[in-house]
């Protein structure tokens, strides 16, 4: 065993999802990711810095909330990424269960800690915004509670994939948990519509006009793009490292086998 | 600025959390790249920064 199959698991011809396998080949992924990473890092840094500096120093204060509204430029992108990260995790889980592709398993393992971090950031900044506005750090509101459930789903995935002696079994169990937990995403999205919540309804929707003044909307969108690029850059770097570590383990195992 | 402690704490977290993840990821990536280059002659032959082509 030379371990080379780890990076050269080319798809079998005629198999469903062949084109997906072609792009998910770990060797091709490493080459492509090495080219994309510097651009993604630069984009993340420039957009995040621009969005946060604009939001903190140049965007107007809210007539009711005062400067506390500036927390929005952190809280809202973190909330979007908590859900988007989980959607990405669910997509990896689906690819893993259907095509059994090892790169999807590795990507899922690397997304969940980052997703948990951004969900924790969303919850923490939500508390810091809630205390001066609602007079409470936390309320068992439908939106807050469903995001807390999302945080526990991320933690559950992190623990479950590492809980088995056989990593493949752990990744399968983790993928099933993620897909079952995906029901939480529409609950988070529509919680402010379905229940009478203390949390405000969505100010930005896909179809409707935003109920946010343009001088607040621009820094919010830039901060959201910056945080999205940051999330993607971190996950990409972690997945690259995971693929290399897998290759290292395979090489070490091959050497040990050759010596014995 | 009104509510300064809450705003400052939020921005501190908003910078610290992604920065910590980014730093950890790039340290881990650098370590993996060096270890792979030391183990894999094909990666070593290609020189530093080209480990991505080790397939």
Short note summarizing the structure:
The complex is a heterodimer of chains A (about 260) and B (about 55). By secondary structure, chain A is mainly alpha-helical. Chain A has helices at about 20-25, 25-60, 70-100, 100-135, 140-160, 165-180, 185-195, 215-260.
Domain module tally of chain A = 1
Q: Find the CATH topology of chain A.
A: Four Helix Bundle (Hemerythrin (Met), subunit A)
Multimeric organization: heterodimer
CATH class of chain A: Mainly Alpha
Features:
heterodimer, A: 260 residues, mainly alpha, Four Helix Bundle (Hemerythrin (Met), subunit A), globular, disordered N terminus, B: 55 residues, 2 helices
Write the layout of secondary structure elements.
The complex is a heterodimer of chains A (260) and B (55).
Chain A: H1 18-24, H2 26-58, H3 72-99, H4 102-134, H5 142-161, H6 167-181, H7 184-194, H8 214-259
Chain B: H1 4-39, H2 41-46
Describe the 3D structure:
The complex is a heterodimer of chains A (260) and B (55). Helix content of chain A is 74%, strand content 0%. Chain A has eight helices and no strands. The radius of gyration of chain A is 21 Å and the shape is globular. Residues 1-14 of chain A have low confidence and may be disordered. By secondary structure, chain B is mainly α. The radius of gyration of chain B is 19 Å and the shape is rod-shaped. Mean pLDDT of chain B is 83; it is low at 48-55. The interface between A and B is large, with 50 and 34 residues.
């Amino acid at each position: 065993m030379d371990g080379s199959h780890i990076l050269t698991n080319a798809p079998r011809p005629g198999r469903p999802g062949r084109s997906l396998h072609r792009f998910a080949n770990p060797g091709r992924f490493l080459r492509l990711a090495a080219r994309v990473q510097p651009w993604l890092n630069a984009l993340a840094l420039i957009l995040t810095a621009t969005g946060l500096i604009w939001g903190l120093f140049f965007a107007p204060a809210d007539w009711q909330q005062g400067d506390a509204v500036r927390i929005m430029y952190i809280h809202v992108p973190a909330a979007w990424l908590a859900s988007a990260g989980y959607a990405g995790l669910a997509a990896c889980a689906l690819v893993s269960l259907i095509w059994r592709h090892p790169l999807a398993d590795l990507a899922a393992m690397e997304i969940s800690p980052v997703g948990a971090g951004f969900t924790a950031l969303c919850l923490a900044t939500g508390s810091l915004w809630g205390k001066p506005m609602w007079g409470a750090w936390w309320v068992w509101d439908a939106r807050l509670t469903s995001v807390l459930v999302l945080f526990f789903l991320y933690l559950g995935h992190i623990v479950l994939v590492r809980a088995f002696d056989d990593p493949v079994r752990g990744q399968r169990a983790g993928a099933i948990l993620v897909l079952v937990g995906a029901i939480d995403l529409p609950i988070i999205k529509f919680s402010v519509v379905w229940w009478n919540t203390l949390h405000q309804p969505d100010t930005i929707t896909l179809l409707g006009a935003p109920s946010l003044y343009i001088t607040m909307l621009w820094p919010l969108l830039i901060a959201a793009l910056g945080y999205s690029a940051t999330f993607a850059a971190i996950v990409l770097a972690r997945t690259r490292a995971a693929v290399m570590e897998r290759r290292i383990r395979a090489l070490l195992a091959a050497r040990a086998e050759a010596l014995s | 600025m009104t509510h300064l402690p809450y705003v400052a704490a939020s921005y501190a977290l908003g910078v610290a959390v992604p920065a910590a993840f980014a730093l950890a990821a790039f340290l881990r990536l650098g370590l993996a790249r060096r270890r792979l280059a030391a183990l894999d002659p094909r990666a070593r032959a290609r020189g530093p920064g080209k480990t991505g082509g080790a397939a």
